[in-house]
Structures are given as structure tokens and as C-alpha cells.
Design goal:
heterodimer, A: alpha/beta, Immunoglobulin-like, four-stranded mixed beta sheet, three-stranded mixed beta sheet, 1 helix, 9 strands, about 40% strand, globular, B: about 325 residues, Purple Acid Phosphatase, chain A, domain 2, six-stranded mixed beta sheet, 14 strands
Amino acid sequence: MNHDRMNRRALLQTTGALALASATTVFAAAQAKKPRVIRVVAKKFEFVPAEIHVRQGEAISLLFTAPEVPMGFNLADFQLRADIVPGKVARVDFTPDKAGRFTFLCDVFCGSGHEEMSGTLVVT
Amino acid sequence: MFTPKPAVSRQTPRGGQQNSGAALRFVENGFDRRQFLQFAGGAVFASGLSGTADAADDFFFVQLSDSHWGFEGPPNPDAHGTLPKALAAVNALAQAPDFVVFTGDLTHTTDDPRERRKRMGEFRELVGGLAVKTLHFLPGEHDASLDAGKAFREFFGPTHYSFDHKGVHFIALDNVSDPGAQLGEPQLAWLADDLKQQPQDAPIVVLAHRPLFDLYPQWDWATRDGAQAVQLLMGHAHVTVFYGHIHQEHHQMTGHIAHHSAKSLIFPLPVAGSQPRRAPLPWDPAQPYRGLGFREVQAEPPVRFALTEFPVQGG
């Protein structure tokens, strides 16, 4: 009996330790993968900021708002796009897998300055 | 008729063909694509390739595009005079075309709906001076994207439609009234129905403002759902697309479908990806109107088209 009870206690302790270790690992992984949030405002007729700097392999979360009229975000080199509707936050998550300077633009015709509305993603 | 001159061609980053010369004529043959493909590979055609078709059924039309009436700025110090010069050149052709098609951006965009209508009224009055009275209009995003095509329809009629002319089926598509540059499901369904009524080997000409393929999405030179339209068109053997938007001549094949963009009548844009930003090429006082022009399309039944490019000239 005593022997069994000791074994069960040891088993529970071991299991608890493993569970704790597992939770710690998950938490650490979550910490490591938590994307860096970059907020971007799409207003007539510019993105603020217009130049976004990130690192290759870094998880990024772009959060867009449009205070005036519907806008679009199109980063063709990464095949990413989003509609940006006033009153809502548009989120684009990605991890750049190549370095360079990449043009993004508004792809929803938004007014007389639409064609000048673009920006640059700089991946180093 | 126009006397062709040789022109210099170069490849674009997307593998299409851009003509940088003052005038060019080549023949596309829907039955035998060797000639067009030879052109796409870098060779330039002179005139004289036609002549095998039945002359009685030949006709030609003129494509004008991207006049941006209402634009003012350094890229074109003669913004008020360029369109009239092009219209006068069309009227001066030795033979009048059967019709003229305007492939969008008739007017330059404005946030003011009254000003938009003023520009459209002025444009309509100007083109009313053409000797040819059959005119077909398509909207560009500058005309239609801010009001879903409302003002355009008031002045020029429907934004998408089809018609037949001497055995050729023409389809005008609207990929601009949706500010997101989409044809949309209803129009794609309409296109599918329209195509179902055509024999598989019918000669079909598609007119649009934006390219239906991804020419260079980094500069918004694409139609978001254009691939669906191209997929529908792929079921027909003889399809040719004429479009505008990119303010330069460009020729590309998607499968057996040929796509030809037209020059602008306001300012040329750079070759895709040739500079960081999509900005107008500067006006060159030494070569005014450089890169501007219009196109004559000679249809030689059953499915052959010869393209001749005309420059805008001063004076």
C-alpha cells in the first residue's frame, strides 16, 4: 500500500512538473511568436507612416485604420491586401521572408490624390 | 492610308512588348499566332502583311484612350490642346473609321461631382466634332470610381455592353466602377451568358480600361478578378483585348488571348517597374507629345487584326 501510494505521489509530482514545464514552453513560444504590432493610418492621400521597417523573419502585425473614406492596402510582392473601412481596424499578419524595398499602395480608388498614395516596406 | 515607319521595341519586365517608336504597324493573326509571337519575341512588323482577307468585309476602328480631360500640370503644358489634336488627326485620316472607341479615363478625376459632369460635358462636346458618328465609350477609374459610374452613365450610357460589327463580336467590360478594380460577380455572370451565345470560333474583341491580367500589380496595373474573365474567354479560340490605363503601348499574350494597351492622350507613364514610383514621364520641350498617340485597328475577317500606332503631333 505504502509503496503504491508513494509511487502515485511521485507520478503526480512528475506529471505536475511536466505540465508546468510544458506550460512554460508554450508561454515562451507564444512570447517568441508574438508579432510586432505596427499601426498605420490610411488617410487622404498617404499612409502614415509611409515607410515601414521590419526584419526578415520577424512576425509582423499591421493594424490599419482609415479615418475618412474606404482605403485599400496592397503589398503585391507578398501577395497581401486588405480593405480598410472607416470605423474598423484591418489587420494584416505576415512574416517577411525576403529582404529589400517593396512598394505598397492603396488599391481602392479614394479620390483625386489616390494615384500618389503609396508607401515602402523596408525589410532588412 | 497611313504610311508605316519602323519602330524600336524592347521587352518589359513582365515579358510583354512595348513599342517606343513613333509609329508601328503589325498584324495579329488569330489562326496562326506565329506572326504575333514573333512580334512578342522582339521582331517588328512593317505593313504589307495584310491582303489575304476578303477586302469587302474589311473594316477598321480607332482606339483613343486616357485623355484625362480636365488635367492640368507640368506633365502636359498643352493639356487643353492634345485631345483636340488627336481628334483632328482622326478626322484627317484618308478613310473614316467605322467607329471610334474610347477605352476609359475620358476625364481626369475630381472630388467635386459638379466639376466631374462639367468635364464630361466638355469631353462629349469635343468628341462630337468627330466626322465618324458611331462612338463607343468605356469608363476609366478617373471617370467612374468615385460615384460607381453614375455620372458616366448620365453622359455616355451603360458601362458594360456588347455589340456586333461586320462579323466581329465586341464586349466592353467595366473594371473601374467598383473602386476596388473588380468586375464583380454580376458582370462576370453577364459575360459568361454573353459568351455562351457566341460560337466557339467567333472572332471576339474585348474592350476594357484596366488590364485583365496582372501586368504589374505593384502599380495597380491589374484587375482584381480579371483572371476569372480571362478564364471565361479562354473557351473561345479567337479573342483579342484592347485596353488603356497604363498610358503606353504594351502587347502580351495570356494563352492564346492577345492583350494590347493603348497610348494616352495626356502623358506617358514609365515602363512597369522601371522607376520606384508610378509617376508621369516629364514633358520634353524638345519632343513635345512624345509617347502620346492613338491606334487604328484594321479588322481583316475572319480573325485577323492589324494595328497601326499614330503619334500626336504639334502644330
